Amino acid sequence: MKPGPILGFVMDLFGLRPDPYPDGFGQSAIEDARYYLRSRQCRKMQVEWRRPLPEDREAWDTHPLVSRFADDLLALADVDGRAWIVKDRMWSGWPDPPEYAFFVMEGDTVWAVADFDRWPTNWFLPPIAT
After folding, report:
1. How buried is 113 (Cβ within 10 angstroms: 0-12 exposed, 13-18 middle, 19+ buried)?
2. With 0-12 CB in 10 A as exposed, 13-18 as middle and 19+ as buried, what is 94?
3. Disulfide-capable partner of 56 in 2, 52, 108, 125 (CB 3.0 to 4.6 Å)?
4. What are the backbone dihedrals phi and psi of residue 95, each rounded to the nearest 5 degrees, phi first?
5. What are the tens digits of pLDDT across the range 9-68?
6. Whole-angstrom distance, CA of residue 115 vs CA of residue 127
7. Residue 96 burial (CB count, 10 A)
8. pTM for this one?
9. Which residues touch 52 (CB under 8 Å, ≥6 apart)?
10. Residue 117 in this model has a pLDDT that exceeds 70
11. Residue-wise DSSP of 48-84
């Protein structure tokens, strides 16, 4: 039996039925709001990013969730015991998604996630070594 529109909305809001969008990772609307607010907090912090090492690339390029989004691992940071990850997309801008995919992982759990186009001015990214 299929739930009515109101019950369906409530079930989606609280993550009580499977994600109808296979591109997502099963988050509820409440988790989306939490990720949004946490990502805004993250953008306000001063962060010294580092370029990924080969072992970092191996770990994040094979991660079951993070590896599905964006194309290239751009930068990493460790902030408050959490792994901060920024991945770059080859194709970005309308109609494609924004240039960067940002994840904050607490162990295997997503703590924050967002897409963005402009690099925050208080995030310091070292130049690419040649």
Report:
1. buried
2. exposed
3. 52
4. -90, 5
5. 887 777 777 655 555 677 778 888 999 999 999 999 999 999 999 999 999 999 988 988
6. 22
7. 10
8. 0.78
9. 60, 73, 74, 75, 76
10. yes
11. E-BPPPHHHHHHHHS-TTGGGSSSEEEEEEEETTEEE
